[in-house]
Design goal:
Chain lengths: 203, 203
DNA sequence: ATTATCTATAGATCTATAGATAATGC
DNA sequence: ATTATCTATAGATCTATAGATAATGC
């Protein structure tokens, strides 16, 4: 970390603080302290708390959208295989970024204008994914290999099941404490979610 | 609202502000203004911002836990029928309290000590519900009327699907805009979630 | 010359309380 | 006498900036 320059150290510290506490509860002084720099440096590099936040939020929300949608929408392999793969990737990604879903939700809801472009991009991506999915589902359904489900509902099912495992984690872990060794829950959840989705699709 | 006394007016305004903005972003002056009382009154009745918040959060989180768990755990009717009923009640409840899931998540994550008793209560309720559910599932499975699924996974599935429809609502509605008339989405989602869960359970 | 960093402080809030004043109930 | 309300302000933060100083590159 000492090898990083000041700007990078600030960004890294800001990411950590904003993700953990959200915008309102994060103090710029705390970010400066965590980055090991003078508080004035934040303003020198990023002008204001808002601008610094924007840096973080855009990147993270873009990443989140891409990871949750990207692995589903690009054809090439058969649909069922791709869905299975997407669920695995979702859960691995979330395990590596456990604070992201909450951050995403809080900031999306806060309706600040700074998110509009990022949200616009996600919506655009989602619409494309839904269109592609629906076409595939209809084609498979015509051959009797799949139930004719609505693509937008399927997508919402997958994302709900995958994300909520992590949103509910603080509760879930305390309730299920002892039932699973660490890491096992994630793997079991993967299989569980895949199974749930497949049963929904299979005729 | 004019018929309410000062204490109730403060509570009502505080609930609205806290639910919308969360603890950190809510100003006590804003609460006072919304309640139409002097700012000093908040401290007269509730001593501090923390104590006022505690009032709101305990009630709301208790309500949330009860609504999400209560309708599942008490036997009497057949399991399948009860699950179907629970999902309907979840979605109706959430439709009437759309800010609650986000509030719940934000405050649970913030790990403040003030939540511990409320969380304790939810955990306790969840464990009982899981035990009862598992017994019923095993009994049905023995007669071949149900797949032998893990109760904690089933519960997590149901809650994920129900809650996330509302957490994701701001995005979902913008993406699906035009596809549904208002209110229809909720009803369709009910049927969808019930179907998903039933397919998971049926042999 | 330009870029980076520090010190010191302005200016804006925000929570909380002290103390005076009005309303209520006995 | 007790309860409720208001005015005024203390005290603590927090964001942001001004202006001096050091480091860097030409």
């Amino acid at each position: 970390m000492d090898s990083l320059n000041t700007e990078q150290r600030i960004l890294q510290a800001a990411e950590k603080e904003f993700l953990r506490n959200g915008y309102a509860a994060t103090r710029t002084t705390a970010i400066a302290e965590a980055a090991g720099v003078t508080h004035a440096m934040l303003h020198y590099y990023f002008r204001s708390k808002d601008k610094l936040f924007e840096n973080i939020v855009k990147e993270k929300i873009g990443l989140m959208g891409e990871m949750m949608l990207g692995s589903i929408g690009t054809p090439g392999k058969p649909l069922f295989e791709r869905l299975e793969n997407a669920i695995c990737r979702h859960l691995d990604f979330l395990a590596a970024n456990p604070d992201l879903p909450r951050f995403f939700i809080v900031e999306i809801y806060s309706q600040s204008e700074r998110l509009n472009t990022a949200v616009e991009a996600i919506m655009c991506a989602a619409e494309k994914v839904i269109a592609v999915l629906q076409e595939e589902i209809d084609a498979l359904a015509a051959r009797g290999e799949c139930r004719r489900v609505k693509a937008e509902m399927l997508l919402l099912d997958i994302i709900s099941l995958d994300i909520f495992s992590f949103i509910g984690a603080p509760i879930v872990e305390r309730v299920l404490c002892g039932l699973f060794e660490h890491g096992n829950f994630l793997e079991e959840r993967k299989r569980e979610n895949i199974d749930t989705i497949m049963r929904k699709l299979k005729p």
